Amino acid sequence: MSREKILAAVKKNQFTSTALPDLEILSALTATSDNLVQQYTGVASAGGCFVYEVNDLEAIKDILRKEFKPGVKIISGIQGLDEYTYAGNVMQESSHSFADAELTILASNLGVAENGALWLTENQMNIRILPFISQHLAVVIGKDAFVPTMAQAYAQIGNADYGYGAFISGPSKTADIEQSLVIGAHGPRSLSVFILIQPLLKYII
Amino acid sequence: MSNATGKSHPQLAAVFNQDEPRVDWHDETLWWIRQKRDVQAHKLPEWELLRETASQIKNNVLSNLSTYLEQFEANAINNGVIVHWAADAKEHNQIVHQLLQERGINRMVKSKSMLTEECHLNEYLKEQGIDVIDSDLGERIVQLANEPPSHIVLPCIHKKKEEIGDIFHEHLGSAKGESDPKILTETARQHLREVFLTRRAALTGVNFAIAETGEFVICTNEGNADMGAHLAEIHIASMGIEKIIPERKHLGVFLRLLTRSATGQPITTYSSHYKKPQEDTAIHIIIVDNGRSIQLGREDFRNSLKCIRCGACMNTCPVYRKSGGHSYHTAVAGPIGSILAPNLDMKKYADLPFASTLCGSCSNVCPVKIDIHDQLYKWRQVIVKEGYSPASKTIAMKAMAFTLSSPGLYRSGGKMGRLVFKYAPFAVNNGLNPWYKHREMPKAPEESFGEWYSKRKEGKQ
Q: Above pLDDT 70, what percent of chain B?
């Protein structure tokens, strides 16, 4: 069997064991709590995101009302945004049925200032395809949910169990044609990020 | 690309070099990406420590690979994922085919995987009557053009937008003469959305596989891997044995390095962590060796297995930028490809380690600190010893060795050379002398150092 063959060949050819390096220095060097929201906003905006700081969910609704026509399919993973279809109620539908979703709104509890990445697990997505298949994506995150770098992000994720999780840092994009940046490759054509001044926990689950 | 034409790197580069403005454009585009990489790297004061840490993690991986592979397999199985092992390209392709056959599937969508290029999966499946559509925009373009990717991160970096417009007009029905990247991308979006929604099988590559958790990570900007995988009933993920990293927290090192080095972005749009299959769907992982365990046993070259496929060594390489990816006639082009390919077939790829100036720029930008240019130099020695060196170099080297071994011949040869340069420059300044290409031959001095020195000595006496 190939499994045994491969493992035997690897075992024979691998060399004397070397220790794993200490990651603590990198974590310590990058640890800071200064201006994380400001840094995140700068990086995310440069990456094509629309970043809003908002007081509450009402403010989000106001912005979305201006951006999206009434009647379009909007799915929300946040219960407090109850005028939209709640993702938790449509989890039994096939992934393909969301092909006509105009906007999906999801929550994140972890944002990374250095690169604009927002961590979402399957729990927050409800359905894995949602943040990819929608024409537009919005993510709601609390202002205290930011860490400086990926080092702190993985420290926070720790050994959490999930079926699927993703860092999402902007709208879907490509520069495959002559290195010209085009927003909206296969996934969302825009990513709006709402940074809530109040803790987000109040609104989810 | 299989070297169907049997042409070597210099011959293929000569074809690419016929269009000088295009060479300049290719060169400048890639250098621009290299500069974007520099901007990102210089923003992080800890950059060098990050590189060193990544390199050390990979050292540990390569020295414990069998244990990590078993650990990864056990955890993946525990997560409900099905694991296959393939000793070579053929076995990999057969496993993919069998998985599709079992489900009666004859159409598949595929996101970027250089491993499947290495295995020539598309060609194999086509022969079996299975239609594969590449979903990364750049890969779709080269697929429609019936070409292999010319760069591991930027598959159609060699193509002008007007050429892409022509391809899309022919295959996807865009307006004739349309070359606006926005409109062409939208055309591909509409076309591929229909593909994502109708394919029951999706194949993806793997950027990192985590032994500790059994999950694997895929990085894209377009979201094409996720669109394919989440809409399919079977997700096949192909990975080389060297994609393993020990723990989840190590992603906090590699994801900081990968995209900064690749395209000069701080991170890709999507870094997707696949751990368990969705309800009613299956995830299959194929762990592929295909020569990697042999490379692991080559002490001088095993570090090449640290590669995370960012492409930084290509963007910075003066030879790659001016000869184009296709001149390397292998799936992974550029400096890293030139140290990986001879392991697979030393004779077929004997020319590649010579496609370098050994300037060392590749080693300087490599995020996992592979000693690329040293390995290129070492491969040259192995290839010459094994008798695979290119014929022109062999003859020249033999003549050189003969001349250098005899002081008399050396002196008369030198004199002859100076006379030729002085009185018959056309004898060397012509197309028969490969060294003359793109170079003016130097003006010869009147006398050699040896002659000058003995004259000087005589004068003193």
A: 95
pLDDT at B408: 81
Instruction: Please give, rounded to a whole number of angstroms, the shortest distance from the CA of A187 to a CA of chain B.
Output: 6
Residue B393 has pLDDT above 80, yes or no: no
Q: Where are the domains of chain A?
A: 28-203
B250 neighbourhood in chain A, CB within 8 Å: 23
Residue A183: how many other CB atoms lie within 10 Å:
18
From the list B63, B71, B114, the residue with the least C-alpha distance to B288 is B114
Encoded tokens for A176: 């495959």
Whose CA is closest to A153, among A121, A119, A183? A119
Query: Under an 8 A CB cutoff, do A153 and B252 touch?
Result: yes
Pairwise CB contact (< 8 Å): B223 & A5: no
Q: Supply the pTM of this predicted model.
A: 0.92
Summarize the confidence of residues A60-64 as an average pLDDT: 96
**pLDDT for residue B255:** 98
Distance from CA of B353 to the nearest CA of A (A): 23
- Find out whether A119 and A153 touch, Cβ atoms under 8 Å: yes
pLDDT of residue B433: 66
User: B287 with B68: CB under 8 angstroms?
Assistant: no
Count of structural domains, chain B: 2
**Per CATH, the architecture of A28-203 is what?**
3-Layer(aba) Sandwich (3.40)
